[in-house]
Write a structure and sequence with these properties.
Elements: H1 3-40, E1 44-49, H2 55-62, H3 65-68, E2 73-78, H4 81-89, E3 95-99, H5 100-105, E4 113-122, E5 126-131, E6 146-149, H6 154-165, E7 174-177, H7 183-188, E8 194-198, H8 201-209, E9 213-216, E10 224-231, H9 232-237, H10 239-258, H11 260-271, H12 275-282, E11 285-286, E12 291-292, H13 293-308, H14 325-330, E13 335-336
Parallel strand pairs: 1-2, 1-3, 6-7, 6-8, 12-13
Antiparallel strand pairs: 3-10, 4-10, 4-11, 5-8, 5-9
Helix pairs in contact: 2-10, 2-11, 10-11, 11-12
Length: 339
C-alpha cells in the first residue's frame, strides 16, 4: 500500500469519526432538550371516568402511545363523568372525560369549558334494568313503578326519552334520585323496581339479579357522546400537549379497530371483568375520535329538555361549547361540524 493511499484512508477514517461524534453529540443534545422540557412542563392531568366509554385512553396507556408522543400524562380515575367534570370545573385537572349533557347543563358551560373531541359514542351505553319480580316484563309495565336514576344526568335524560318513546306518561312513574354507586344495591334491596343507568353499572345490576333481571335499551332513544373536555385557557397554554394526546388517541382508535382482541383484554383488565363481559360492553360502542354534527344535534335536543325543566339552565350556544381547532389541526377529516 502506497503512502498516499494510507494518508487518504486515514483522512476518511478521521472524517467518519468526526461525523459519528457530531451525530452522537446532536442526538445527546436532543435527548437532553426533551428531558429539560419534560422537567420544565408539569404533567397534563386528565380525569378519566371508569367504564367502556374510556377505552381509547386505556388502550393508549397500555400500548405506550402517550410515551411515544413524549407526553407526560397523569390520569386520575373518577367514578363517573359527573365527578370528572366537577374536578375540571374546580380547576383540579386540565381535561376530563364527560358526556355532552354535562356541558349543556353545567354553569361552567357558560364560561370557558369546551369539548375538544368525542372519544366514544353509543346508543346502548345507558339502559333501564328492571326486576321481573316487580311484575315488569314489558315497557308499559313501568307505569306506577319506582325507577332510580342519577338526577340531572344523561341517565335521567335517557329515562325521560325512553318513557316518551314507549308512550308512557312520565307522571305515572316515580323517579327516585340516587348516586350511581347506590343504584344496584337499591334495586337488589327492592327499594326501587328499576334503574336507568350507564355501563358498566347496568351490566353489573343485570348480573346480580340474574334471572330476575329484564333490560330495556333502544338505539332510537338517545346516543350518548363521551368527550374530552378542557378549559379554553389551558387548551391554548398546553396546545402542544393536547395535540400529543389526540395523536395518541387516534392511534388507539386504529388499534381498537384493527385488533379488537387486544382492546377487549385491556378493557377486561382495567374494569376487572371477564373478557366476555368486556366484549359485550364494547359491542355497541363507536370508538372513533371525532367531532361531528350528531354531537351538536344531541346537545341542542338536550338544551330544549333542560329548558322544559322549571329549574333547568342550559347553554344556549351549543357551538360555543365545542372547540374543533385542536382536532382539526391533527386530523381535519375527523371534524364534520356544520358551522
Amino acid at each position: 500500500m502506497s503512502a498516499s493511499l494510507r494518508i487518504r484512508m486515514a483522512r476518511r477514517a478521521l472524517v467518519g469519526a468526526a461525523w459519528a461524534l457530531a451525530w452522537t453529540l446532536a442526538w445527546g443534545g436532543a435527548l437532553a432538550m426533551f428531558a429539560r422540557r419534560a422537567e420544565a412542563a408539569p404533567p397534563l392531568v386528565v380525569a378519566v371516568s371508569s367504564g367502556p366509554v374510556s377505552l381509547p385512553i386505556y388502550v393508549a396507556q397500555a400500548r405506550g402511545f402517550f410515551k411515544d408522543e413524549w407526553l407526560d400524562l397523569q390520569v386520575r380515575d373518577c367514578a363517573s363523568g359527573r365527578e370528572c367534570y366537577r374536578w375540571l370545573a374546580d380547576g383540579r385537572v386540565d381535561l376530563a372525560t364527560a358526556a355532552e349533557l354535562l356541558v349543556v347543563t353545567s354553569d361552567a358551560a357558560h364560561g370557558d369549558l369546551a369539548i375538544v373531541a368525542t372519544i366514544s359514542a353509543s346508543s346502548y351505553q345507558i339502559k333501564l334494568v328492571a326486576r321481573r319480580s316487580a311484575r315488569i316484563a314489558e315497557a308499559p309495565q313501568i307505569r306506577g313503578k319506582r325507577v332510580g336514576t342519577v338526577p340531572g344526568s344523561s341517565a335521567q335524560y335517557f329515562l325521560d326519552n325512553w318513557l316518551v318513546f314507549n308512550d308512557i306518561d312520565p307522571a305515572t312513574v316515580t323517579v327516585i334520585g340516587l348516586p350511581p354507586d347506590k343504584l344496584v344495591a337499591a334495586l337488589a334491596a327492592r327499594s326501587v323496581d328499576a334503574i336507568a343507568i350507564w355501563e358498566p353499572i347496568a351490566s353489573s345490576a343485570a348480573l346480580l339479579l340474574a334471572g330476575d333481571a329484564v333490560t330495556f335499551a333502544t338505539a332510537r332513544v338517545y346516543t350518548q357522546h363521551f368527550n374530552l373536555v378542557g378549559a379554553r385557557p389551558a387548551l391554548e397554554r398546553r396546545d402542544a400537549d393536547v395535540a400529543r394526546l389526540l395523536r395518541a388517541l387516534l392511534r388507539a382508535q386504529r388499534t381498537i379497530q384493527a385488533d379488537p382482541d387486544v382492546a377487549r383484554a385491556v378493557l377486561a383488565e382495567r374494569l376487572h371483568v371477564s373478557t366476555a363481559m368486556a366484549a359485550s360492553m364494547m359491542e355497541n360502542l363507536d370508538y372513533r375520535v371525532r367531532l361531528d354534527q350528531s354531537l351538536v344535534t344531541t346537545m341542542q335536543g338536550e338544551a330544549r329538555w333542560v329548558a322544559r325543566n322549571a329549574d333547568g339552565r342550559a347553554n344556549a350556544d351549543v357551538l360555543r361549547a365545542i372547540d374543533p381547532a385542536p382536532l382539526r389541526r391533527i386530523d381535519p377529516g375527523a371534524v364534520g361540524l356544520v358551522q
